[in-house]
Amino acid sequence: MAYRWTNDLTHDDVTPHGAFLNRRQIMTGAAGLGLSALAGGAQAEQALEPNSWEDVTTYCNFYEFGTGKGDPAANAHQMTTTPWSVKIDGLVDRPGDYDFQEILSEMTLEERIYRFRCVEAWSMVVPWTGFELADLLAMAGVQSNAKYVAFETLYRPDEMPGTAYRVLDWPYREGLRLDEAMHPLTLMATGIFGKDLPNQNGAPLRLVVPWKYGFKSIKSIVRITLTDQEPPTSWNMSNAREYGFYSNVNPEVSHPRWSQATERRIGGGLFAKRQPTEMFNGYGDEVASLYSGMDLAKSF
Ligand SMILES: Nc1nc2c(c(=O)[nH]1)N[C@H]1C(S)=C(S)[C@@H](COP(=O)(O)O)O[C@H]1N2
Ligand SMILES: [Mo]
């Protein structure tokens, strides 16, 4: 794919921590200046509250470890992530169990600083490390009749205390239309802040789809299936009226129980003003064409 995404956010939009500081200091030089100039338009007007390592790693949703925001940080260390393999099957030329290290050796890692908007109307800015899902799919060889990609999270009850409760139908499942999956913004993340993903953020490999509500960004992936049918997805199965298959960030389509017009940026402090939510979470220039002709209030 010729087109590669250019970051519209800079390291000034995230709070540096530890080893990350050096990098930021370097960037504050000539390069930092150039990158800031790129962050034009709507993003520049929005005062981006910085997110810290602490915000990103302690305020989490990972229901396999509990439904509280602090539960994943408290419990996810119980999850064994080595060895790790991802089964890629369905409509692919080279199905199989791909070892995570083997995948890494084939992929080019890069950093992407993305806005991240949860359906619960909070948001963060996160510096991910990862590779494009399109590159992984190319490795497996997508067949011409494939139309969707289905994803599954690890389901290992003895390491996942939250799965004792049937809040969702485990394993956690998500899905994308193939063109969404192949889009250059769609990332398979392996790290944050230049370090490996902490377990609570979906180690060792999770999806990041920045123009969709956070629940589409499925964590700790063990299976990827190419299919010709729209796959069942966990939140949609649990409540189809509230959570659609597409779940594109859309300030104009309210959740049945709350407005999606604004969001609370985590780390902004108790009295921070809520920010307006942007269509497609600010990525409309890149992705709106995927949905031309669709009624986004119906296909929410
Ligand atoms: N397997 C799995 N993936 C998941 C979830 C989950 O509960 N289980 N929660 C989702 C939701 S609702 C959000 S907002 C993001 C949160 O990612 P973070 O904790 O890294 O910020 O993960 C998504 N991926
Ligand atoms: Mo979420």
Short description:
By secondary structure, the protein is α+β, with helices and mostly antiparallel strands. The protein has one domain: Sulfite Oxidase, Chain A, domain 2. The chain is built from ten helices and twelve strands.
Instruction: State the separation between the terminal residues, measured CA to CA.
Output: 28 Å
**Count, helices:** 10
Q: The biggest beta sheet, please?
A: 7 strands, mixed
**Number of domain modules:** 1
Percent range for β-strand residues: 15-25%
Cα shape? globular
| pLDDT averaged over residues | 89
**Contiguous runs where pLDDT drops below 50 for at least 5 residues:** 15-47
What are the secondary-structure elements, in order, as H or E? HHHHHEEHEEHEEHEEEEHEEH
Features:
300 residues, alpha+beta, Sulfite Oxidase, Chain A, domain 2, 7-stranded mixed sheet, 5-stranded mixed sheet, 12 strands, binds ligand MTE, binds molybdenum atom
Can you offer a commentary on this structure?
This protein is an alpha+beta fold and 300 residues long. It has one domain: Sulfite Oxidase, Chain A, domain 2 (Alpha-Beta Complex). Helices cover 21% and strands 21% of the residues. The chain is built from ten helices and twelve strands. The strands form two sheets. Strands 3, 4, 7, 8, 9, 11 and 12 form a seven-stranded mixed sheet that branches. A five-stranded mixed sheet has the order 2-1-10-5-6. The chain is globular, with a radius of gyration of 18 Å. The two termini are 28 Å apart. The relative contact order is 0.17. The site of molybdenum atom has 6 residues, from loops.
